[in-house]
Each structure stands twice: as structure tokens, then as C-alpha cells.
Design brief:
Length: 264
């Protein structure tokens, strides 16, 4: 071991360091290769030449100029494709075939501006001199192109002034009181309100679809149906006490109006 590893003193060690330094100075080691920079997230930006940039700017300016010079056409409502056509036809019938009174009645009693663009000239153009719907419009109704009254987004309640607001008031009061609302409850409320308007009630089919769209599209309600459950069909905890109170109210009402069993 001593033959291969000879001991050196400090002078010999310093001489070896100088020899290594001179060797590295004459033969420097190669530099380490630096890794390429990491690619940024997303698609790399495409470099455009000056000609391409000018061409794109010219195309954008031309498109903007053509849009400004384009003739602006007024909005047009296809009433026979809207959910309000049956309401309009019903109002026309109730107003005695007067297009002007029909439009005034609809715009006055509508809960919003849905009939703002309806003109009496348009309504008058749908009928002949005898007040009968023209054949082409009647064909659209027969083919189902016009929305049915029971399937429209809004009910045909404009012929009954105040009926729609009364229905909304009752439903909002019931909901505020914490009563679960379902289609059966909404139908009972509608029937109670529309008893004063038998002509309108005969024109309406209070179907599940009609009730669902009414409570969802009415601007005062805008209800959203929850998943179908039996919560509204369950008896409350105090159902016995509520039954007693109901019987007491019935008895008080009968006594107030002097109703006897012999009159039933």
C-alpha cells in the first residue's frame, strides 16, 4: 500500500495544485449544455408579416363599412307562430270583430308589453269582410303551426280582466304561508277565480302542460317545479285540529247566511 500511495508534504501538494491549474488553463473543460426554455402554456402566437397585418386590417374595415351601409329592416313578429295567437283570436271574437278594440283591449290588460308590436291593421288583415279567418291562416291553425291556448307560454286570461293578477295573488299568498304548491292546487285556484268568467273558462283547458307553463312563464311567479314527490299529499301534524277549525268555520258561515239543513 505504501508503494502506491506515497506521502507528500505541503510543498509537493502546492506544486501539484499549480500543475493542475496550468493544465486546466491550457485545456479548459467544455461548457455544460443549457436546457432549452420551457414552452409557455397555450397555443404559440403566430407571427404575422407587415403585409398580412395590413391586409387583415383592410378586411376588418371593409366588413365594418358594409355593416353600416347594410339596410336595417324593422322587426317583424309572426303572430301565428307565437303562443299568443289564440288569445288574440279570442279577444277579437269577444270584441265583436273590431280589430282596433281588440288591440286596445289586449295592450291594456296584458301583464307586460307582449302586444306592443301588434297593430290593428295586422289583425284586420287576417279576416275577410264577414269577419271569418282567411283560409291560409286557418290552415296554419289546423296544421298546428300556431301555439294552442293550453300549450302556450301564457294563458288566455286577457278576456277576463284581473283574473291573472288574482290567480297570482292567491298563489303567492299560499306560498308565503308555507303551503306546498302543485298542479292540483294551482288548478283549484284558477277554477275558483274563473268561476266569475264562465265564457273564458269554457275556452281554457286547464291541463298539466298549461298550468306548468303558466307558473313558469308568468313574470310575477316564475316558479320552478321540484322533483315529483308526495310532500303535498301528506297530512300535516295538526290535521285533526285543522279539521275542527274548518267545521267551525262552516258552521259560522251557515249561521251567518242562515243556511239550514232543510234547504240543502
Amino acid at each position: 500500500m505504501q508503494a502506491f500511495c506515497q506521502r507528500v508534504d505541503l510543498a509537493a501538494y502546492r506544486q501539484q495544485q499549480l500543475a493542475v491549474a496550468d493544465f486546466l488553463a491550457e485545456n479548459p473543460p467544455p461548457r455544460a449544455v443549457t436546457p432549452p426554455p420551457k414552452r409557455t402554456v397555450g397555443r404559440p402566437k403566430q407571427k404575422r408579416t407587415l403585409d398580412e397585418t395590413l391586409e387583415a386590417a383592410a378586411d376588418a374595415a371593409s366588413a365594418a363599412a358594409s355593416q353600416l351601409n347594410k339596410r336595417v329592416r324593422g322587426e317583424y313578429t309572426r303572430w301565428f307562430n307565437s303562443p299568443y295567437i289564440n288569445d288574440i283570436l279570442l279577444a277579437y271574437k269577444l270584441q265583436g270583430g273590431s280589430a282596433r278594440r281588440t288591440v286596445e283591449h289586449l295592450q291594456k290588460h296584458a301583464p307586460d308589453d307582449r302586444y306592443k308590436r301588434l297593430s290593428h291593421s295586422s289583425v284586420a288583415g287576417w279576416f275577410d269582410k264577414n269577419g271569418k279567418l282567411l283560409q291560409k291562416y286557418q290552415a296554419e291553425l289546423d296544421a298546428g303551426h300556431a301555439a294552442a291556448t293550453h300549450g302556450g307560454n301564457v294563458s288566455a286570461l286577457h278576456a277576463a280582466p284581473g283574473a291573472e293578477d288574482a290567480i297570482c295573488d292567491n298563489l303567492l299568498q299560499l306560498r308565503k304561508a308555507g303551503m306546498p304548491l302543485n298542479s292540483h292546487v294551482v288548478r283549484w285556484v284558477m277554477l275558483a277565480v274563473l268561476e266569475k268568467h264562465p265564457a273564458v273558462l269554457q275556452q281554457l283547458a286547464l291541463s298539466q302542460q298549461f298550468i306548468s307553463k303558466f307558473v313558469r312563464s308568468n313574470p310575477r311567479l316564475q316558479f320552478r317545479w321540484r322533483a315529483r314527490t308526495t310532500a303535498a299529499s301528506k297530512l300535516p301534524d295538526d290535521w285533526e285540529q285543522q279539521g275542527i277549525h274548518m267545521a267551525q268555520r262552516m258552521g259560522a258561515t251557515m249561521q251567518l247566511h242562515k243556511v239550514s239543513l232543510s234547504e240543502q
